[in-house]
Amino acid sequence: MMSSPRNLACHAAQRTLLFAASLVVPSSRRADWWREWASELWHIRNETTSLQSFSTEAEAAVFSFCFGSFRDAQCLRREAGTQAALVHSSAWRCVYALALALVFCVLVSRLLPGVRAEQEAAHYALRSGLLLVQSDNQQSTSTPVVTASQYRDWRSTQQRYFDGLAFYTSARQRATVDGLGAYSWQVAQASANIFSLLGLPVQMSDGDTAASGDIPAAVLSYDAWVRDFGADAHVTGRIIYMGARQVRIVGVAPCNSVQLPTHPDLWLLDSSDLTKISGSTRGFLIALLSPLGKYVSSSMDGRMPIGLNGVNDEAWNLIGISLADQDQGIWPIAAFALFLALLALPAVASVSLSESAFSSHRPTFKRRLVRWTFLVASSLLVIGIALFASLIVAYAWTPVYSPTAEFAQLAAGFTFTLLGLRWVILDQRKRCPVCMRHVTHPASVGSASQTFLGWNGTEMMCVGGHTLLHVPSLPTSWFGAQRWLYLDTSWEFLFADPFAP
Amino acid sequence: MASEPRLSHTAALILQAINAGHVYGFSIMEMTGLPSGTVYPALRRLERDDLIRSQWERQSIADAEQRPPRKYYKITADGRKTLESSRKRYPLLERLIPSEEAKSAV
Predict the structure, then answer these.
(1) Of B26, B38, B56, which has the smallest distance from its Cβ to A40's Cβ?
(2) CA-to-CA distance for B16 and A131, rounded, in angstroms?
(3) Alpha-carbon distance B105 to nearest alpha carbon in chain A (angstroms)
(4) Interface size between A and B, measured as CB pairs under 8 A
(5) Which of A238, A37, A301, A270 has its CA nearest to residue A168?
(6) Which of B24, B37, B56 sits opposite A68 (nearest CB)?
(7) Separation of alpha carbons A418 and A351, rounded Å
(8) What is the ipTM of this complex?
């Protein structure tokens, strides 16, 4: 039997009301909620309304029933919100969120070429006992002081303190690569043994190309390879034109965190060229200490005075600066940023965790252990996030090492670590020592005009009914820091706590 | 110390109605005279506190009667204990909605 149009319209309007109310219900419970209310609506209409005749009174009763669905939906929403708030403030959920943030930062940082290069650099450590020889009155290591004739003289005399010497001169030159264009590179003319002396194996070395003779060999720096060749894996064998001269790329220098003076982009490893250059040309001398030299230098704090007599009995006063001391890399910078942040932390947050309590009651040893475990875990996670986030900030726009990136890493690492550790301490202070959830429902207590008669400040309570936290608004000599008031079990009936520990 | 929940008069009335055999929302509304906006939220809270349990009617039964299935509510053991203490607190409860046992005793 057909319903009247007015009945149909009312039924449609009532279902629309239910549908609107269902949108308020949390999605996880919506289907069940809708099924129940739709079913009840059908039954109510079946019992109170008639198909043939329209009754305003009956329809009003059904509409009244449908309006009640909004209140039901609101209750479910409020209940879900309370549960979400309780779960949200849970300590382990916080650790979980921090761990996710850390994983995200690690994954993003690993996608950045600059970070990958720096991590790769850590695999290629310099040999120990390497010294950069400088004049003893020279402050800057980027100024060449050793002449080619000094190097030749030194190399030809017997050494007790050194096992090997390498020399290079450096100048900016215009270089052209077929198919890529012209570059202004810092080109180093180096002795052939420089990479073996440094202990850095040349990457993608092509022995056949190197041995092929008439065209001199050259090694690209890692930075130039990434920056100008797009990290092309087939770069070996390509010809570089520098004026009338041609050189062939025989490999790529490994990425290394130690930046030799002038940061050469291209290394020409033809020792015969080095013998041809003028004796007065100044360059950089790198020396490898012998075991005796290491023993002597061990007590000299990274700077070893070198007195040298040339073949003509000239006396040179030089100084050897340990290259190991220049080793930066991302990890030492991160450690330094962490050290600075720990130093600065007391300036931005009181490092006391305010364990004082009104009563002699204390949480159990297990609860205290959980509290400290949470503090350590969240601190470590925050430090990790700060480290990798600082790498993202530093290397987001630079694919290779640069002093700017290093500075950005240090600045960002310091800032993130400092703010992160401050947040950890403040967060820990607001967590109930019993259940580790945030205390809530702040209430103002006392009157500021009666500070010396009774405390005034903010009182917060644990939603599980374990503690009250009293934070003075004006620290006094008798109430300087926040205090916990532990509630006994007689308070439990006041707190409905579905997440009690 | 685990204590029994102390029910409001309305919640106790609804629990008494379920105990008396009014096992779905509309029936409880009819028996108690309470509006839907009071009955259904109270049912959610009672179920959350494990005083009642809900169960959907089997689809085959509803199909046989050509109607949608209903959601039925049933009092639990905890609910009975709570109802007992609520009856002491609200003595008129059983007079307003006599339970099956009380009816059979009469």
Answers:
(1) B26
(2) 91
(3) 31
(4) 64
(5) A270
(6) B37
(7) 12
(8) 0.91
